[in-house]
Here is the input.
Amino acid sequence: MRITEVETFNVFAPGANPSFVWRDGLRGSPPDREVGVIRLRTDEGVDGVAIAPRRGSGRIVADAFAHVLRDELIGADPLQREWLWHRIWEIDRTEELPIFLLGLIDTALWDLAGRLYGAPTWEVLGGFRREIPAYASTSTFASTAEYLDVTTQCIELGYPALKLHAWGDARRDAELCTAVREHVGSDYPLMYDGSAAFDLPDAVYLGDALAAAGYLWYEEPIREFSITAYKWLADRVRVPLNVAETSDGAHMNTGDFIASGCAAYVRTSTELRGGFTGAMRIAHLADAYRLRAEPHGPTIYARHLCMAIPNCTYYESLVTSNPVEREVGVSASGMVSAPIGPGVGLEPGPKYPDELAQYVVDMSTGAVGPSDDPNQPGGSPSEAVPGMTPART
Here is the structure.
């Protein structure tokens, strides 16, 4: 089998409705935007697709494939994923590709593999489970009172655990985390994500509060450029750290976090850690040291990872509105079931052209193909939005 055609598509993706915010200093939910989709086609009629959902990614993807990546893929064997994964990293040495591009091709190759074998990609990766609990992962809300209201709603909706994204103020966030613990009692699992808001002194202050409140993990309190800073933080606080989410270098970078002794949990994902290949390397590396590798984000890719990775705890389900709406595919008991496939497919939401409708996922089941479910935006064939036509390279 050989790759015979590489296509890129600039696809319109509507902004979140309602919009939401993150901590002070960060941009909030993305507005209406163009995103990039790739499709790899083969001489045996098996395709693979993947999406880069970051704002502005449509033009970035089209340009990178037109000028750098297309020629590397035409004629390649799509089942030689390891060779192609290494090849992309070699190209990155001179081209300094955006971090999300490092895993985009690999993700499409794993989608192709699932279609070839008629199985969901998590099974091809090596399945471990068929369902996993989902934790509610908040955006940033206006006040402690609203957080407590949102927390109550999440529990009533069946979420078995909750993670807070707060304001990025160490003292205010510490008070919030303590109030939420008092609100839910001692047995309900809580986590906190700092979204890289703090320097070491503030991170220590907040970490002490999280330890006292019995939080399960303390995620990305500091920008991940300095592993030494994380080691010093781990030496000073008792709450377990969840690290290595956004830093470049896939498993190689994660390995340094682990070697420093700062990690109890590590983050893994297809988008930021080198596709499925990079994400699984991280999971296996963490397992060798009896650490947990927690998939990042509420995506179909994360659902596949959760079913394939033995040493993870939860699926991350974003809660960004009040009243709270439970994510499609999360059950009333807070569980997410394994996707049906085949392959992985494309998440609903963007206004895909008709020729991509066959790859859109029904997020309630993980089945790939057009859906008539009105709760699956973009699940049915969509007309191409003017000016967003495919850009084949």
